[in-house]
UniProtKB/TrEMBL annotation:
The keyword Signal applies. It holds the Pfam family PEP-CTERM. Keywords: Signal. Residues 1-23 form the signal peptide. This is Ice-binding protein C-terminal domain-containing protein. Residues 203-226 form the Ice-binding protein C-terminal domain.
Length: 230
């Protein structure tokens, strides 16, 4: 009985030592009045908490972040999922057509991890507009938009594809100081905003500590087993 109890204790310890994924609160970008509106060399600035962000590239329009602008990132079910626990609600959005031959780049004032992007109305039913990023990502939520309907964005490698697609993606790289993407198959417009997941505050046990504790528990199991056999 004691042997079984020690094995159970060891199993519970190892399970507790593994990282657990859970939804967290995203800090979404606050976008300012654009510095330059241009189809090939626009400039937009904003903040994500204490991080300054600059966007350079195609810039057809900007919805400035304020309570009076309509929030396109609805319904919640289309934009919240996985590690992302909340959608953008401040009305801020960058709008582009997806022109080919233009590289669009976000630059951050300090290295960031846990970068999130939410997309509105990417492509049309007959036009598969896409963004190809210089970083890997995963889709955590997708579905129809409150205004245009549509469906899920899809993924092929580091390319996000939409036929009137909507959803949220989380990038796997970091810490990074910039993120770039190119587009193909332009349409009338599509929009996006970005945000950051918080850094985890709960300490993670050092690998050496886990090994030491695990070895100690295994030793106890061995002692109990010898006593049981004796």
């Amino acid at each position: 009985m004691r042997l079984v109890s020690l094995r159970l204790l060891l199993s519970l310890f190892l399970m507790a030592a593994l990282p657990t994924a859970f939804a967290d609160t995203v800090t979404w970008a606050t976008w300012n009045t654009p510095t330059v509106l241009s189809p090939i060399a626009g400039i937009e600035t904003g903040t994500i908490g204490s991080v300054n962000v600059t966007y350079v590239g195609e810039l057809q329009f900007v919805n400035v972040s304020n309570a009076g602008n309509f929030n396109y990132f609805q319904p919640t079910s289309t934009y919240v999922g996985g590690v992302v626990g909340n959608a953008s609600t401040n009305g801020g959005m960058i709008g582009i057509d997806g022109l080919a031959g233009v590289t669009d780049t976000f630059t951050f004032s300090t290295p960031v991890s846990g970068l999130v992007l939410s997309e509105v109305s990417l492509g049309q039913a007959g036009i598969g507009t896409n963004y190809t990023f210089n970083d890997g990502f995963s889709i955590v939520a997708c579905g129809p938009n409150v205004v245009y309907g549509g469906s899920c964005i899809t993924q092929s490698g580091d390319t996000m594809i939409g036929h009137e697609g909507d959803g949220t993606i989380v990038f796997s790289g970091g810490p990074i100081t910039s993120l770039s993407f190119t587009t193909a198959n332009p349409e009338y417009w599509n929009g996006f905003t970005i945000g950051l997941l918080p850094q985890q505050t709960s300490p993670t046990p050092e690998p050496g500590t886990i090994t030491l504790l695990g070895t100690g528990l295994l030793g106890l199991v061995g002692v109990a087993r010898r006593r049981f056999l004796a």
